[in-house]
Amino acid sequence: MSEPTAYGQTGTPDDVPVCPRHPDRVSYVRCQRCGRPVCPECQRPAAVGVQCVDCVREGQKSVRQGRTIFGGDLAGVGERPLVTVTIIGICVLVFLGQMANPRLTNEVAFVPYLGDTEPWRFLTSAFAHSPRQLLHIAFNMYALWVMGQYLEPMLGRARFAALYLLSAFGGSVMYLLLSFPATFDDMRNGDYGSWETAAVGASGAVFGLFGAFLVLQRRLGRSAGPMVATIGINAVLGFVVPGIAWQAHLGGLVVGAACAAVFAYLGRRPDGAGTQRAGFGLHWAGLAAIAVLLLVLTVVKYAVTSSVL
Q1: How confident is the model over 31-56, as a mean pLDDT?
Q2: Residues 6+ apart with CB under 8 A from 173
Q3: Residue 269: CB partners within 8 Å, gap ≥ 6?
Q4: Is pTM beyond 0.85 here?
């Protein structure tokens, strides 16, 4: 026959409730959600009573995460900008590879006359830099770090990565659109023009981040005066300093601004209470439309050029 035990319970010593996570700890407090015993270390305050850490963790999975106005995860605000750091790391590794093997630059640089047969160059060029100009990569990585810390948490990692890649692609496409094969007279004079001139650097993508910053700041009602001045100075340098592909800067700036306009103005609809809720799925449709437009412009450019040659 069983005898009375403490707390008015009856049973044998084997019936004493213990915490599932800590079997050596007796607990007569139970989780309000799963009903299992829970020791003080595993207890978490709930609206009524306590819950165990397992139930709290499971409940957090089903809770809809908060979003920024542009689709970023509020839980990621304040964390390390992972995509930005990854891009910087790739660029540094490629730069070291270029210094170790000069042929690498020729393999990844964007050259208009090679783009139709080696299309990867449209993007790989945005991760390479001039191996003879340390300031080239230093400025781009600094600008990427500054803009990435601000934009990546606001947009979320996936949207920020798409912004960078589309801006890089847009810079190469604009470089292609404004390049033309050299005439016979030009070639006789040793001038082959930009059609056969390689371009490398993350500048097009960085200018895309600049353009996105301008649009998003305007959407938020914030000032962007210093950035306007920075873009103006770099625009002038593109025409004054030789060897700078201002076409890529222009293309990145335009595409980055277009992507930001998608984030800022698409996918917003009023709910029943009259407030605004974001349908962020339309963002990806808008980005896809920009990518398709860039592809069409590329195909048309090569088609027209090949018909003339």
Answers
A1: 84
A2: 122, 251, 294, 297, 298
A3: 276, 277, 279
A4: no
